[in-house]
Design goal:
With 316 residues, this protein is α/β, with parallel strands linked by helices. The chain has twelve helices and nine strands. The structure holds S-adenosylmethionine.
Length: 316
């Protein structure tokens, strides 16, 4: 399976934005010092679509039939990301929501602009009063959407699973207080009802690592939840093509899965490696699947034999 958190294409919202470049865009009509990502640039979505279409094609190429592709996004550009994934041939199965309550609202008051109007002070004050509490259309964002896409299975779900060991969901995984797994997930306590249905464990201070400088580290339990839902055994391979500080890879390692991570930034790769080293397989929570049991999924009538070294082989 592929679980990833790509750059969101919220242009100039990172630490590389340059005021001069920002000020020269045609969308620069708010406040000079504000990043352009807070303005509305139609090109961002189109660029994101085109770029993610190419990425998704490669993801489709490397997945087995029935393999899952989970990708995080932002509420604003989710539609472009999902259209790109959809258009490459994936089946869009669902949208997961990572719910939280704390985030910095970005909406701005218009008082700053009203002050600059060439109108009498009395009129300006009156306008300010009339627009008191009315702000720019940026609601406090309290969720991240995550698409659940699937490479088309070969034949029925059962046939596909027996051939490729992937394509079904593990409903032993529980969420909240022993509930059936859902597409809404929260990593922070909210209230009794929400926690009962959607809470997975809270991020632990140690899981990020004090050496980790990455700015958008995802909660480990969220990655574990998704990997646990979709991978059947320790033969499964988890790929994260935008690994950052390696949260997906740490989760895969803890669960005894194989993992592959890619990142363009060498510094992040070093951080990810260090993080991965600091975690062990958590066999109390994710017991290894016996090879024999796993092989039996593949073919109904096959026989298996244990060799002297303990290795299991199929007998013709
Ligand atoms: C949102 S972050 C991932 C954070 C990660 N989920 C974590 O928990 O640490 C996206 C990552 O994509 C990487 N990235 C951006 N463009 C890339 C590219 N073209 N190829 C590979 N990695 C890239 C960035 O360096 C960044 O670390």
């Amino acid at each position: 399976m592929v679980l990833t958190d790509p750059p969101y294409f919220l242009d100039k919202m990172d630490d590389r934005w340059d005021e001069k470049k920002v000020a020269s865009t045609k969308y620069h009509h708010v406040i000079k010092s504000l990043p352009a990502g807070m303005k509305f640039d139609r090109e961002q979505g189109k660029n994101f679509y085109e770029w993610y279409y190419k990425i998704s094609k490669q993801v489709l190429r490397v997945l087995k039939p029935g393999g899952f592709f989970f990708s995080f996004s932002s509420p604003r550009l989710y539609h472009r990301m999902v259209s790109a994934i959809d258009d490459t041939g994936f089946l869009i199965r669902d949208c997961f929501i990572w719910l939280y309550t704390q985030n910095q609202p970005k909406a701005m008051s218009l008082n700053h602009f009203i002050e600059k109007l060439n109108e009498d002070k009395e009129d300006r004050d009156d306008l300010k009063k009339q627009l008191n509490g009315w702000k720019t259309p940026q609601i406090k964002s309290c969720f991240e959407p995550i698409v659940m896409a699937q490479k088309e299975p070969q034949g029925t779900f059962l046939e596909n699973f027996r051939k490729f060991n992937v394509g079904l969901l593990n409903t032993h995984v529980k969420i909240g207080q022993d509930m059936f797994p859902s597409n809404v997930v929260s990593t922070n306590k909210i209230n009794e009802v929400v926690d009962k249905c959607f809470l997975i464990s809270k991020p632990d201070k140690k899981e990020k690592g004090d050496f980790n400088l990455h700015r958008t580290v995802k909660p480990l339990s969220l990655c574990e939840y998704i990997i646990n839902l979709t991978t059947y055994s320790d033969k499964a391979v988890v790929l994260d093509p935008f690994a950052g500080s390696g949260t997906t890879l740490v989760a895969a390692k803890k669960m005894g899965r194989k993992y592959v991570g890619i990142d363009i930034n060498k510094e992040y790769i070093e951080i990810a490696k260090r993080r991965i080293r600091s975690f062990e397989v958590d066999s109390s929570r994710y017991p290894a699947m016996s090879e024999e049991k796993q092989l039996r999924i593949f073919e109904k009538k096959a026989n298996y034999k244990r060799l002297s070294k303990g290795k299991i082989v199929k007998v013709a």
